């Protein structure tokens, strides 16, 4: 028995009308509406001698429900991502003028006093901070002795240094007996501006560097 062609003009008209107000290719309601119209058209034009069985119909309905659910989830996640980005921007603006900590080996200078901080991964029986030139030459050493793990700070008298103390760096050596203990140097700098790179919030610091907001380890 011949099957008469499906008249899709009504579907096309409906799609044209819908596209004026929403994207029918991604809108879950529009997708489900098109599916139901096509299903009705398929039922109206099926071969009476070989009708569509219930299993086929159930499978098709399950498939469209799955696709609709995924589309709804994608739209929800996109909305949440946009809201999170907006919240990050607002939070970043509130940091302008504040001092933040990020990983780095620069000291801050207050008059003739150099100040620095670092994170010690665990207890250490010996902790030493070396003040070094950009080339890595040590100009002084601070012996901090035994220390518990955590965030520690130190001060160094920069008045005895004849060069430009602002160019100096520091490095930390820590050990517990013969076992080395990891020490992460931290740089303190003021936030001057905020920006965005690859969808992530960035902070422009007073020392000229730009760091990702996710890499900020503390706010002072």
From TrEMBL:
Residues 1-19 have a biased composition (Polar residues). It holds the Pfam family FlgD_ig. The keyword Iron does not apply. Residues 1-29 are annotated as: Disordered. InterPro entries: FlgD (IPR005648), FlgD/Vpr_Ig-like (IPR025965), FLgD_Tudor (IPR025963). Keywords: Bacterial flagellum biogenesis, Cell projection, Cilium, Flagellum. Gene3D superfamilies: 2.30.30.910, 2.60.40.4070. Residues 105-176 form the FlgD/Vpr Ig-like domain. Residues 87-216 form the FlgD Tudor-like domain. Belongs to the FlgD family. Required for flagellar hook formation. May act as a scaffolding protein. This is Basal-body rod modification protein FlgD. It comes from Diaphorobacter limosus.
């Amino acid at each position: 028995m011949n099957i008469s062609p499906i008249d899709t003009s009504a579907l096309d008209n409906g799609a044209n009308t819908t596209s004026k107000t929403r994207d029918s290719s991604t809108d879950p309601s529009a997708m489900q509406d098109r599916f139901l119209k096509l299903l009705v058209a398929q039922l109206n034009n099926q071969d009476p001698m070989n009708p569509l069985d219930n299993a086929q119909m159930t499978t098709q309905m399950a498939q469209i429900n799955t696709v609709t659910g995924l589309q709804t989830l994608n739209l929800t996640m996109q909305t949440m991502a946009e809201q999170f980005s907006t919240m990050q921007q607002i939070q970043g603006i509130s940091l302008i003028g504040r001092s933040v900590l990020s990983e780095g080996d620069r000291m801050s200078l207050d008059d003739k006093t150099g100040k620095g901080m670092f994170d010690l991964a665990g207890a250490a029986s010996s902790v030493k901070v070396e003040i070094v030139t950009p080339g890595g030459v040590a100009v002084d050493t601070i012996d901090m002795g035994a220390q518990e793990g955590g965030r520690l700070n130190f001060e160094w008298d920069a008045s005895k240094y004849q060069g430009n103390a602002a160019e100096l760096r520091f490095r930390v050596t820590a050990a517990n007996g013969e076992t080395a203990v990891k020490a992460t140097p931290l740089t303190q700098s003021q936030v001057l501006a905020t920006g965005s790179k690859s969808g992530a919030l960035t902070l422009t610091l007073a020392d000229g560097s730009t760091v990702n907001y996710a890499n900020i380890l503390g706010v002072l």
